[in-house]
Write a structure and sequence with these properties.
Chains A, B: This is Metalloregulator ArsR/SmtB family transcription factor. The structure is a homodimer. In chain A, α1 runs antiparallel to α4 and α1 crosses α5. Helices cover 61% and strands 5% of the residues of chain A. In chain A, strands 1-2 form a two-stranded antiparallel sheet. Chain A has six helices and two strands. In chain A, a hairpin with an 8-residue loop joins β1 (57-59) and β2 (68-70). The structure holds a DNA duplex.
DNA sequence: CATTTATATAAGCGTTCTGTTATATAACGA
DNA sequence: TCGTTATATAACAGAACGCTTATATAAATG
C-alpha cells in the first residue's frame, strides 16, 4: 500500500491537519479554508491538492468554486494499518510482567 | 499536540513502517532490524531515532545492545486525533441526503 | 589492555518539501 | 464582451530529508 505514504505524510503537516479539522465541521471552498491562515491562496491550494492526492478529501465543481469535504478512503486505510500496531501493543501488554522485569523500575503499581 | 507532527511524519516513511511492522512481532536490536534492509546501519539508526522521538518505540540498554519495542504513546495520540475525522465522516454520512441534494442538477446551458 | 561488537554521530550531497510572487484559466455578472 | 471572482499553475529560493562513508564510543571478550 504505497498510499499510506501519501496519507501519513499529508497528515504530518499541521496546516493540513488544521484544514481537515475545519472540514470536519463541514464542506468549504478554497478561499473559506484559506481565510484563517497567514498564508497565500496558492499555498493552501497546494495543501488541498496534497490532501486530495492522499484520498483524505474530495472536491466537487460548483461554478467557479471547488468545495471540499472529507473523504473516508485514506482514513480507512490508515486505521487498518494502525490496527497492526494496536494488536501488537495489546499483546505486549499481556506480557507486561516480562517488560517490567527487564525494566526494573522504581516501585510502582502495575495493573492487570 | 505538536507531537502529531513527529508521529505522522515518522509513519510517512515506508522503511520506518516496515521497522514498526517488524517490532510488532517482538523486540529486536538495531542490527536485527537493519538486516532485512538494503541500507546501511547508520541509516537504520537514524530511522529508529525518528521513531523514538515520535514516541512510537522505546529502547532499553542491554550491554552494548539497544533492543527496541513498540510504545503506545504516539499510537494513542494519533487514534485520538483521527477520531475527530472519523466522527465527522460518520456525521457526513448521516447527512448524505443533503449532500446529494446540493449535487443535484443545476441545469446549465449547453454551449460551444 | 587490545580487539571486537553494537550502535551512534558527523559531514557531505542530491532530492523533496513549502512557501512566495507572478500569471493563467474558467465561470460569473453586468 | 469586459471585468471580477475563484482557483490553479509556474518558477524559484531556502529548509528539511534520507542516504552514504568515515569515525567515535562503550561494553564484551580474550
Amino acid at each position: 500500500m504505497r498510499n499510506l505514504d501519501a496519507a501519513f505524510s499529508a497528515l504530518a503537516d499541521p496546516t493540513r491537519r488544521a484544514l481537515l479539522a475545519r472540514l470536519a465541521r463541514g464542506e468549504a471552498t478554497v478561499l473559506e479554508l484559506a481565510e484563517p491562515f497567514d498564508m497565500t491562496q496558492p499555498a493552501i491550494s497546494r495543501h488541498l491538492k496534497v490532501l486530495e492526492g492522499a484520498g483524505l478529501i474530495v472536491r466537487r465543481v460548483e461554478g467557479t468554486k471547488r468545495p471540499c469535504r472529507l473523504a473516508p478512503a485514506a482514513i480507512t486505510e490508515i486505521d487498518q494499518w494502525l490496527g497492526l500496531l494496536r494488536d501488537a501493543l495489546a499483546k505486549n501488554y499481556d506480557r507486561l510482567d516480562d517488560v517490567l522485569a527487564t525494566m526494573k523500575p522504581k516501585p510502582r503499581k502495575a495493573r492487570r
